[in-house]
Amino acid sequence: MKKISILITxxxxxxxxxxxxxxxxxxxxxxRENGVGENNNENDNNEIDEDSSKIEYSPIYFKYxxxxxxxxxxxxxxxxxxxxxxxxxxxxxxKKFKNLWRIKRSYMNVxxxxxxxxxxxxLTAGENxxxxxxxxxxxxxxxxxxxxxxxxxIDPNYGSIEFFADNKMLDLSDVIPLTAVDSxxxxxxxxxxxxxxxxxxxxxxxxxxxxxxxxxxxxxxxVFDKGGYVTYNKLEWADNNTTVLRCYFGLICVxxxxxxxxxxxxxxxxxxxxxxxxxLVTEGSKIVMLNKDLNLKVTCDSHLNKPEGxxxxxxxxxxxxxxxxxNRVGGGGVTIKTKKGDIWKAVASIHFENxx
Length: 356
Prior knowledge:
By secondary structure, the chain is mainly β. Helix content is 0%, strand content 48%.
């Protein structure tokens, strides 16, 4: 498969006066995927390579490592020495017709003695940005992101990935150590393709659609700030006359470790019990989850800007693997017919903060 070249221009900020400190009651974890980001050299690239004399927290740090999977780790300041780390990973899977970047399993970290130290998981490896389902007989899986049938390497005129630190495009031709910046975002242009039938994408029963017909063009911009991120998604539909069964324009796989209870905008409250049910079902958009023992609150929110005039439904899927935030359009007998040139726009966000 042709390797996508990513051009980047790096802006380093001087990192001075850094001294680590730890938070109370961290939950230790040694989970890592594929060894990404590990470095056994004496100068670990998790470490800020400067002396420090006082505490000063940058709003954002990031680092890049090719490793087993290309990964950009983005650390966003929450409070004190606590940072929410989001792993943006390059996924290539021919069985799922997938070549894209997306936010995967992520962890809370603390800055200790100039190093980021992983503490406990905050997001699972499922989809955390955007997917949709086609209304065609035999289709059981979603289109996009984790589920596949999305690529940045099919259309030479529309397909790319660009990362920006302090609004300057980065160059990922080499490892980038932990670096402080004031802003960070990435923009991905991809094509989304018709999902096949017979089972989950990539399974033994799955039958792909011959030629992988184009469904739509997808622009995703994810901006990291204020203890979390905001993801902006735009679709431009092709001439496939696709009918959408459901579109999850807001979906975030929050871990049970940080979400023991939740509140919706209408004042409903639930203590999660991991029974697999749908909780806090509402036509509102914002849901707040918290863990009092960790002194942590997480707020999920999302909005569909186009198409207009449709009711949206928000909920939490209460499972033992995640408390997954959903906001969807469609479902309940409502489908949406698209035509060439139709534009869809949505925004979703997650932010962490302390309870005090």
